[in-house]
Amino acid sequence: VSLRYALLAALHEAPATGYDLTQRFRGRLAHVWSASHQQVYRELGKLHEEGKLAMTEVPQTDKPDRKLYQVTEAGEEDLRQWLATPQPSPATRDPLLVKLFAGNLLDREAMLAEVAQRRAETREQLGTFRAIEREYFADLKTVPMHFRLQHLALRRGITAMQASLGWLDELETALREGENLCTHMV
Amino acid sequence: VSLRYALLAALHEAPATGYDLTQRFRGRLAHVWSASHQQVYRELGKLHEEGKLAMTEVPQTDKPDRKLYQVTEAGEEDLRQWLATPQPSPATRDPLLVKLFAGNLLDREAMLAEVAQRRAETREQLGTFRAIEREYFADLKTVPMHFRLQHLALRRGITAMQASLGWLDELETALREGENLCTHMV
DNA sequence: CCTTACATGTAACAAGTTACATGATTAG
DNA sequence: CTAATCATGTAACTTGTTACATGTAAGG
Questions:
Q1: Between A138 and A105, whose confidence is greater?
Q2: What is the torsion angle, in degrees rounded to the nearest 10, for the CA atoms of residue B118, residue B119, residue B121 and residue B126?
Q3: Model pLDDT for residues A140-172, shown as the tens digit of each residue
Q4: Which terminal residue of chain B, N or C, has fewer Cβ atoms less than 10 Å from its own Cβ?
């Protein structure tokens, strides 16, 4: 149920359109929450219907009109209540880890390629997170509370990516070592 | 689409019933994949219908009969093909991180309570993972390949939990410090 | 000419959650 | 008497993904 609250929180920060929100979920908020534009538009529609969001159409020439959403009092109250309710930790579901349990069916070369790909993705993510850190959290002196918490959230993303890279190295080493030990990975 | 392959991989390791698989997803495999018993039974039914799994009913006295599943050749081929296909990295979706973006709506006491709860859950998970490590991976000398890879998967879970605990400490510190700086968290 | 950015959506499907349902046995 | 473990499922719902649909403008 958290998508709606992710939207409410993001709109509480600053009013935005569905398009903007989709961008945020792929940029600054990628380590926090993710959603496709279809999900975003659908949920915004629902929230608006329920009176949790107010909508203003902003006409544009040359480009399609924008629908700017902002949180209503009802929406704020909803968000406040959700904030007060402890949320369960998210479940882990990583297909790469699943593969490690396939034993002798695993193909070393394919795995090495996948590890390389995963590493590239992870490095890129890490790069964007660091760029965000430089852009938004350069001055660590002037720290209002909400700023510090957002920075902490970002640090979580950064350390997670770093840990991931370290682990991928270990995995690669193990896969390469195996080459000398046995032809079929049994 | 990965649930079916998580099931095929788990059944390739050792034939099992839906009940067994559900237990595995909550125990040894919790850091790899998770699924509720409803999901497991549903997917097993489909896989069996499609001929990817063979099923044997094992009558029991005193307890309900068991339905033991094992991977067929068609299932193995399917799994092999999936293994050869690179899978996307999983998206992050953590409601606790969402909360950090709610700014002035956030209630410090509620957050501290939630952090404490999350820490307790994480510590427990870490405990079980370590127990598994002691039980299954005590002798690091005798290492067949598939064993090493499973150990690596487990190490991933363990280090993730440790990193999580460290971060929760940082978060708690930040929340407490804020108390001295401002009454409302703006 | 082709792709990217801007900006919105619908429809169908797959995956995951929640609630309900049954029924015996064992341990506190 | 109550709860937990064993063992299976159905039904309804919510969430997330994939494919399809439209239309302009700018940049390489």
A1: A105
A2: 140
A3: 766 788 899 999 999 999 999 999 999 999 999
A4: N
Closest nucleotide (CA of B39 to C1')?
A: C16
Q: Phi-psi region for residue B85, left (φ > 0), alpha (ψ -120 to 50) or beta?
A: beta
Choose the mutation target among B11, B32, B181 for the interface with A, i.e. most A CBs under 10 Å. Answer: B32
The burial class, CB within 10 Å (0-12 / 13-18 / 19+), for A30 is: middle
Question: CA A60, CA A22: separation in Å to the nearest integer?
Answer: 20
pLDDT class of B159 with cuts at 50, 70, 90: very high
B99 touches strand D (CB under 7 A): no
Q: A53-58 and B66-71 as β-strands: parallel, antiparallel, unpaired?
A: unpaired
With beta carbons under 8 A apart, name residues in chain A contacting B79: 102, 105
B46 closest-nt by C1' vs CA:
C14
